[in-house]
Design goal:
CATH superfamily: Alpha/Beta hydrolase fold, catalytic domain
Distance between the termini: 31 Å
Pfam families: Abhydrolase_1
CATH topology: Rossmann fold
Number of domains: 1
Largest sheet: 8 strands, mixed
Strand content: 15-25%
Organism: Pseudomonas laurentiana
GO molecular function: hydrolase activity
Protein name: Alpha/beta fold hydrolase
Shape: globular
Keywords: Hydrolase
Order of helices and strands: EEEHEHEHEHHHHEHEHH
Helix content: 40-55%
CATH class: Alpha Beta
Strand order of the largest sheet: 1-2-4-3-5-6-7-8
């Protein structure tokens, strides 16, 4: 286990393997642990860097307002601390939002970008959006973190063969600090950088589960706004694709990274 400090907050990170640097960012209420099906395979080819986002896992959980730009600033601080050079960046869900923010703010740090089951904005524009937000906001505040985790696990891993994943997710979710979880949830709502997506110039892969919370069509629309982006759809998967379809996810990601590495070798400025 390793730690570094940024703006008075101790942040936990882990490093595995050798090669081009590859950063993995987890989602809301998660931690480095949820990349367990990726690290052994990816570390055979890359220097894999994991970070527990502020308020999550083994990182500190300061009593303050969290923001997506703030999480992005923590990532920048980690890279400045490690000095790995430009990185491949993979973000799942909230981690993908941080990835979008980082890509438009610090393109010089990226070799490539991979966004998994995420979006470049979470804006409340109509009654349907408001009802969705209010339901999630209310349940998060009324229920224990264990109850929230149990409910999410049942939706994300509904098959009989997913019983182990359901137990694991419920146990891990129960360890969340509720105040930090709520602050992170609030950081998402109202955030967005969709109007800046045209600034992302590095090779970009958007991975979407066919049964994600948001439809594939939404990803198709924002992929069209990114110059070097393409979309890959993972069948028979929900929001936690790296966990419910690890082999197909790893294969899809590794193929993209290999192509992005070849592209980057021909340019002094990957982005």
């Amino acid at each position: 286990m390793a730690y570094f400090e940024h703006e008075g907050c101790s942040l936990h990170y882990e490093i595995y393997g050798q090669g081009e640097p590859l950063v993995l960012l987890h989602g809301l209420g998660s931690s480095c642990e949820d990349w367990e099906s990726q690290v052994p395979e990816l570390a055979r080819h890359y220097r894999v860097i994991l970070m527990d986002i502020r308020g999550h896992g083994r990182s500190d959980k300061p009593r303050e307002r969290y923001t997506i730009p703030g999480f992005s600033a923590d990532l920048l601080a980690l890279l400045e601390h490690l000095q790995p050079g430009p990185v491949h960046l993979v973000g799942l869900s909230m981690g993908g939002m941080i990835g979008f923010q980082f890509a438009v703010d610090h393109p010089e740090w990226l070799r490539s970008l991979c966004i998994v089951n995420s979006a470049p904005e979470v804006k409340i524009r109509n009654r349907t959006d408001w009802l969705w937000w209010f339901k999630r906001w209310s349940l998060a505040r009324l229920l224990s973190t264990e109850a929230v985790g149990k409910g999410l696990a049942a939706k994300l891993f509904p098959k009989p063969e997913h019983a182990g994943l359901r137990r694991t997710m419920t146990q891990r979710w129960a360890r969340n600090d509720k105040r930090a979880y709520l602050s992170s949830f609030d950081a998402i709502v109202g955030w967005g950088v969709q109007e800046r997506l045209g600034q992302i110039r590095c090779p970009t892969l958007v991975i979407s589960a066919d049964q994600d919370y948001t439809p594939v069509a939404l990803k198709e629309r924002y992929v069209d706004l990114i110059p070097q982006a393409r979309l890959a759809v993972i069948a028979d998967s929900r929001h936690a694709t790296p966990l419910d379809q690890p082999q197909l996810f790893n294969q899809t990601l590794l193929q993209f990274l290999a192509a992005a590495s070849t592209t980057a070798q021909g340019s002094l400025s990957p982005c």
